[in-house]
Write a structure and sequence with these properties.
14 helices; single chain; binds S-adenosylmethionine
């Protein structure tokens, strides 16, 4: 099997580094370490007086990120920056940092290839695994608990709200009839039998996405981060966010626009940046990435 690090390619890497504009003695926070691809880029641009703080609520991801960053620290020796890793949700950032204490904040939302490719994590309808989908495997309900225990009405609302699935009621009815749902492939089959085939995506895509977003409180996490960011950044500090879904990107877009109106943000990306054909070819996951960046005024 390929090493996870080798499989994972950080999206829009050069663009992220360009917008973060890392100062060697600065303090940077990577809110979504994943396999530490972007974090490695930051660490290599920092000097011995610089600092990287990384968050990931997935204990497996945190461990792999730690191994990778330890190797780089060893390689850099006395020139290595200080590195602190935190195995919690990034929404607690406001509790962990003083106001105006950070030079740059990066958040690359969504699921990592480590999570998606691992059948036992239950994120993918293409692999057979338990219906889990939790990033933080230590707590919270699994997607299996949600599909087996929620009322049909609540399930339909959730699939509509987070999956933008127009046939959410039909899907919810099929799921309730198909209970108990014990595997991702069973769930995918149930959903596929309830909605007509689609041209470009698997019919279960939206339902899986909705469950994942709900289980991980993904949109709430993004809102909390964007609300705290202007307070935490120093003047001229940079914020870089990458979303993979229109619901996420809308939150980022609205938050930056409102902040710009209030004179808090200088938005650096009038339109979101996307990957070019070459990057999409190399890394299909980058196809839906949207990068937005802003500078604290
Ligand atoms: C798309 S990956 C990040 C990839 C990373 N930029 C890299 O270069 O390897 C997203 C990671 O963020 C983590 N994550 C997502 N939402 C989070 C949250 N609210 N709090 C902490 N970690 C989160 C996930 O567990 C996952 O490992």
């Amino acid at each position: 099997m390929t090493e996870p690090q080798a499989r994972h390619v950080p999206v829009l890497f050069q663009e992220v580094m360009g917008f973060l504009n890392v100062r060697p003695d600065g303090r940077y926070v990577d809110c979504t370490l994943g396999l530490a691809g972007h974090a490695e880029g930051i660490v290599r641009r920092l000097g011995p007086r610089g600092q990287l703080i990384g968050f990931d609520r997935d204990p497996e991801a945190l461990e792999l990120a730690r191994e990778r960053l330890d190797r780089i620290t060893a390689e850099l020796g006395s020139q290595a920056p200080q590195i602190t890793l935190i195995g919690e949700a990034f929404s607690r950032i406001a509790e962990d940092f003083e106001p105006a204490s950070i030079d740059g904040l990066l958040a690359d939302f969504g699921v990592s290839s480590l999570q998606f490719d691992e059948a036992r994590r239950g994120f993918s309808f293409q692999a057979d695994g338990p219906v889990d989908m939790r990033m933080d495997t230590r707590s919270g309900p699994t997607a299996g608990q949600v599909v087996n225990e929620m009322s049909e009405r609540e399930l339909a609302n959730l699939i509509y709200e987070y999956g933008e699935e127009r046939r959410s009621r039909t899907v919810a009815r099929a799921i309730v009839r198909g209970r108990p749902v014990t595997s991702t492939s069973q769930l995918a089959r149930i959903v596929a039998s309830a909605v007509p085939p689609m041209k470009h995506i698997h019919p279960a895509t939206r339902t899986f996405q909705a469950l994942r977003m709900y289980v991980n409180r993904e949109l709430e996490e993004i809102r909390d981060l964007l609300e705290a960011a202007p307070r935490l950044l120093k003047p001229s500090g940079r914020l870089v966010v990458i979303s993979f879904h229109s619901l996420e990107d809308r939150i980022a877009k609205d938050s930056l626009r409102d902040g710009a109106r209030q004179g808090i943000w200088n938005v650096l990306t009038k339109k979101p940046l996307t990957a070019d054909e070459e990057e999409i070819e190399r890394n299909p996951r980058s196809r839906s990435a949207r990068l937005r960046a802003a500078e604290k005024t």
